[in-house]
Amino acid sequence: MSTRVLFLGGAGMIGSAAAAEAVARGIDLTVVTRTEPRRELPDEVRQLRGDVRDIDALTAIVGDDQYDSVVNWIGFSPQDLAGHPELFAARSAQYVFISTCSVYGRPVPQLPITESSPRRQPVFGYAKEKIECELLLEEAYREGALPLTIVRPFHTYDRTAIPILSGWTAIERMRAGLGTVVHGDGTSLWTLMHSSDFARAFVPLLGNGHAIGESVNVVSGDILTWDQIHLALATAAGVRNPTLVHRSSESIATEYPAWGEVLEHDFRHSMLFDTGKLKQLVPDFAPRVSLAQGAREIVEYHEADASRQRTNAELAAAFDRLIARP
Ligand SMILES: NC(=O)c1ccc[n+]([C@@H]2O[C@H](COP(=O)([O-])OP(=O)(O)OC[C@H]3O[C@@H](n4cnc5c(N)ncnc54)[C@H](OP(=O)(O)O)[C@@H]3O)[C@@H](O)[C@H]2O)c1
């Protein structure tokens, strides 16, 4: 009998990639979304509609069905999880919570990051609330019968998601021969993963008894500097020698306050991971999509429809000011 899996959410960027991979591996998959999914799901997926943050609606949707694994893609605060431990302890052999590697405190006291690196975030709301979710579910695992696995993706992208804060504004400026601002001196380290690689690493964790009680960083071992990330996008966009202009995160935040928090608490810090636990649980996994290939897909996707090439005039003006003053 095939593994029965229920996705709560799961029609977004990484969820839909995981759905395609799960079906390709013969998993019997049901996906619950509020509305018609914006991303395509394979025909084999059984689709249900409902608000999974409404525990009464969710209880009615699940009914008496039993699953080998339930994956919650859309838990962002403890309120989103109300009633889940009780409901799924009785309905599933595994409850997978999709968290984030943003839970790890910055600056990271010791690199590389492992699953036991300290979780800490006093300010940045997204990470702070993900930590609260993890703690609530861990307590349910310790005290009760919730067969919990915590999965922490890091920065995952696909053709729709340009993995730099400046997005298409940077591509357009590079093509026009204008400077593009990169935080710090462009050498801090970052880890990117294509959503299809995430899916290949993630799906084998479903129904995997060895993953119960564990938290797992589902990340690639592909470590890049921010300059390399910008250069890969430039190459894909046909620009050979883009002008990358380095400015401190503080200077950037002064000229463009919208980036202040994300630079301070996230992007300015080097983030690289020990992938030992993932390798132990999913020994066959190896990433297949290089950033060079991913960047080509990104440029092709955006060039196929001009409405996807969204630029930000305010950001471009901030870049001009930052470049004008050394
Ligand atoms: N992408 C990254 O780099 C990254 C990194 C770290 C962690 N993560 C984690 O990955 C998860 C997101 O994965 P994803 O982007 O692939 O999204 P996803 O969960 O696969 O997509 C969201 C889907 O869930 C539906 N949905 C939203 N709220 C709902 C509700 N209350 N009831 C039922 N359906 C609902 C959405 O439909 P509607 O159209 O109705 O909203 C959409 O179809 C998050 O937990 C995030 O923290 C992502």
Walk me through what this model shows:
This protein is of the alpha/beta class. It has two domains: 4-156 and 193-218, 3-Layer(aba) Sandwich (Rossmann fold), CATH 3.40.50; 159-191 and 223-271 and 289-324, Alpha-Beta Complex (UDP-galactose 4-epimerase, domain 1). The protein contains twelve helices and twelve strands. It has helices at residues 13-24, 55-62, 84-89, 125-143, 167-175, 195-202, 226-236, 249-255, 260-267, 276-281, 291-303, 313-324, and strands at 4-8, 28-33, 46-49, 69-72, 95-98, 148-153, 155-157, 180-183, 189-194, 215-218, 223-225, 244-247. The strands form three sheets. It has a seven-stranded parallel sheet, sandwiched between helices. It has a three-stranded mixed sheet with strand order 7-9-11. A two-stranded parallel ribbon has the order 8-12. α1 (13-24) links the parallel β1 and β2 (28-33). α8 (249-255) runs antiparallel to α9 (260-267). The longest helix is centred in the middle third of the chain and has 19 residues, at 125-143. The radius of gyration is 21 Å and the shape is globular. The mean pLDDT is 96. Residues 9-15, 32-35, 37-38, 51-53, 73-74, 98, 100, 153, 155-156 line the site of NADP nicotinamide-adenine-dinucleotide phosphate.
How would you summarize this macromolecular structure in one to three sentences?
The protein has 326 residues and is α/β, with parallel strands linked by helices. It has helices spanning 13-24, 55-62, 84-89, 125-143, 167-175, 195-202, 226-236, 249-255, 260-267, 276-281, 291-303, 313-324, and strands spanning 4-8, 28-33, 46-49, 69-72, 95-98, 148-153, 155-157, 180-183, 189-194, 215-218, 223-225, 244-247.
